[in-house]
Amino acid sequence: MVVSIAFDEVVWMDIVDHYFDNIHWNQSTKKYNKPSDWVLDKYGANVDLNLRQIHFDTSEKCSWFVLTWGQ
Questions:
Q1: Model-level pTM?
Q2: In the prediction, which pLDDT does 53 show?
Q3: I need a labelling partner for 4 at 20 to 30 A (CA). Which of 33, 41, 45, 50 fits?
Q4: Cα dihedral 44/49/51/52 (nearest 10)
Q5: Which residues lie below 8 Å from residue 61, measured CB to CB, with a gap of 6+?
Q6: Which positions ≥6 away from 39 have C-beta within 8 Å?
Q7: H or E element, residue 38
Q8: Range of 18's domain?
Q9: What are the backbone dihedrals phi and psi of residue 6, each rounded to the nearest 5 degrees, phi first?
Q10: Residue 21 DSSP symbol
Q11: Residues facing residue 54 across a β-bridge
């Protein structure tokens, strides 16, 4: 079952800020090239920037994301 949630600009910018402040510049190897790569690895979710949605393959992963980012 795929669970999708919409996100607003504030939530996405919080993720982008966190990614660049804490993940991107601190990688010993370039595992992630962009914030959506990190979201896929961390939460198992695909980000659709055009539709402003995040698609999860389980409701548990979606719930964890919502609890973490206050969606």
A1: 0.86
A2: 95
A3: 33
A4: 70
A5: 3, 43, 44, 45
A6: 15, 45, 47, 54
A7: helix 35-43
A8: 3-69
A9: -85, 150
A10: I
A11: 5, 47
